[in-house]
Amino acid sequence: MNGRGDGLRLTPTELSAPFVNSDWGTKYPPVLTVDQTADLLQVPRATIYDWSSRGMLRGCGRRVGKHLRIFRDRLLQKVFNEGLNHE
């Protein structure tokens, strides 16, 4: 997923608007599990682990013990504004 060069730049308000006062805010809280992240992006959970291990989600999350947690708004900013490039 490479979002660069296509002119799509979402503002922080546009990124967070779907999650304010809606069912999405409950389903996708600010800190996501791998399953929630995969569901939000509509990709297999193995893809999230692959992207993370290849550094494509750098700056979007942290390991908490053995568990990966993803910051929703940072993830969406990276996907839509920066693109998922191997860094």
Please specify the SSE layout and strand pairing.
Elements: H1 12-16, H2 23-27, E1 31-32, H3 34-41, H4 45-53, E2 61-64, E3 67-71, H5 72-82
Antiparallel strand pairs: 1-3, 2-3
Helix content: 40-55%
Tell me the fraction of residues in β-strands, as a range: 5-15%
| Major beta sheet summary | 3 strands, antiparallel
- Kindly report the average pLDDT value: 87
What is the overall shape? globular
Structural class: alpha+beta
Spatial extent as radius of gyration: 13 Å
Low-confidence stretches: none
- How many β-strands, per DSSP? 3
What is the string of helix and strand elements? Answer: HHEHHEEH
How many helices in DSSP terms?
A: 5
Main sheet strand line-up: 1-3-2
Distance between the termini: 13 Å
Description:
The protein is α+β, with helices and mostly antiparallel strands and 87 residues long. It has a domain at 31-82. It is 44% helix and 13% strand. It has 5 helices and 3 strands; from the N terminus they run ααβααββα. It has helices at residues 12-16, 23-27, 34-41, 45-53, 72-82; strands at residues 31-32, 61-64, 67-71. It has a 3-stranded antiparallel sheet. α3 packs across α4. The two termini are 13 Å apart. The model has no long low-confidence stretch (mean pLDDT 87).
